[in-house]
Design goal:
The structure is a homotetramer of 98-residue chains. Chain A is globular. The model of chain A has no long low-confidence stretch (mean pLDDT 96). A 4-stranded antiparallel sheet of chain A has the order 1-2-4-3, covered by helices on one side. Chain A has helices at 7-13, 15-18, 40-57, 84-97; strands at residues 23-25, 30-36, 62-66, 69-74. Chain A has 4 helices and 4 strands, in the order H-H-E-E-H-E-E-H. Chain A is 44% helix and 21% strand. Chain A starts with 6 loop residues before the first helix and ends with a helix. Chain A is an alpha+beta fold and 98 residues long. The B-C interface holds B 41-42, 44-46, 48-49, 52-53 and C 41-42, 44-46, 48-49, 52-53. Strand 3 of chain C pairs antiparallel with strand 3 (62-66) of chain D.
Chain lengths: 98, 98, 98, 98
C-alpha cells in the first residue's frame, strides 16, 4: 500500500532528485522534469521504455509530449502527495534517458 | 509545403471533425480532443500507432497522457494555424482509436 | 518459482488453448500460434501490448514478425517445458488480439 | 520502384555492411544480423524505433526476438533479392542500436 513520505523519506527518496533537475510543485505535492531528446523517435522510444516500467511498478506518470520534448509530473493520487513510488519511477526514468 | 487552410479548406477538412468531438481552440488556431481507453496499456498502444503515423506524415501532435486518458492538440506551427495535415492526422487518430 | 505442469495442470491451463489455434511442439514442449493483422502497424502495436505484459509477468515470448504476421512460441526454459506462465501469457495474447 | 542491386550497387550499399557484422544468405539473397541488448526492454525499445523507420521507408524486416536478442533478415520480396532499401534500413538499424 502506498504511504505519504514523511520528512526522512522525503530527504532519502526525493531530495537527491532535485539535484537531477526535478522540481517540486504543489497541490498536490509532485515532482516535475522536462526531458529533451534528439528527435521525436528517440523521445517516443524512451516513453515506450518508461511505459513498460510504469506498468511493472503499477505507477503511471502524467506526461506531455511535443516533438522531441517530454514533460513529466509524478505524484501519488491515492495518498495526495509523494510516495516512495514517485522516487522509484523518477530514478528509473532518469536512468532510461541516459 | 504546408499552407494555412482557407475557409473552403476549413469546411472540407476540419468542419467534419467537430462532429467527431474535436474542439477548436485559439492562439494559434488548433483542434483538440480527449480520448479515453480501457487501460493504460490500451492508451499507450494507441499512442504507438499514432506515433508511427505522425512520423510517416511528418506531423506531430502535442499530447498529454495520464493513465487511460490522452488529450491531443493539433496545429501546424510553421503556418501559425491549421493546415490539411491537421485534418489528416486527426482523422487517422480517430480511426486508430476505433 | 516456475513448475512444469503435470497432466491435470496441462488439461486445465493448456488444453483450452488448443481450441484457440495454439499448437503443441516438442523439444522442449512448447505452444505456438500465428497471428495475422490488418497491417504492420496493427501487428507491431499488438506486440507492444504483449511486450508490456511479458515484462509484468516476467515471462517472454519467442516471436517472429514479418509485415502483418507474428509467429509466437511459448515455453518455460528453466523448467524445460510448459508452466502455468505459458498458459497465462497465451490467454493474454489472445485477448489483446481481439 | 525497387530495383535489384547490380554489382556496383552491391559494392556501394551492401559490402560495407559485411564489415558491420551483417552476413549474406541466399534464396533469395538477403542480409542478416543478430543484435544483443542489455535487457528485453532495451531490445523492444530498439524494435520500436526500427518499426517507425520501417514504416517511413515502407520497407519491413523479418525479425525474431527472444528476450534481449533480435535476429534481423532483410530482403526485397518484389525484386527477389537485395535493393537499395535493404542497405538503407540496415544502416539505420545499426545507428539506432548504438
Amino acid at each position: 500500500m502506498n504511504e505519504l513520505l514523511d520528512e526522512a523519506g522525503f530527504e532519502l527518496h526525493i531530495r537527491p532528485l532535485i539535484d537531477d533537475d526535478w522540481k517540486l510543485s504543489e497541490s498536490p505535492t509532485a515532482i516535475e522534469k522536462e526531458y529533451k531528446f534528439k528527435s521525436f523517435i528517440e523521445a517516443f522510444s524512451w516513453m515506450t521504455k518508461c511505459a513498460i516500467w510504469a506498468e511493472k511498478l503499477d505507477h503511471h506518470p502524467e506526461w506531455f509530449n511535443v516533438y522531441n520534448k517530454v514533460k513529466v509530473k509524478l505524484t501519488t493520487h491515492d495518498v495526495g502527495g509523494l510516495s516512495i513510488k514517485d522516487g522509484t519511477l523518477a530514478k528509473k526514468m532518469d536512468s532510461l534517458a541516459e
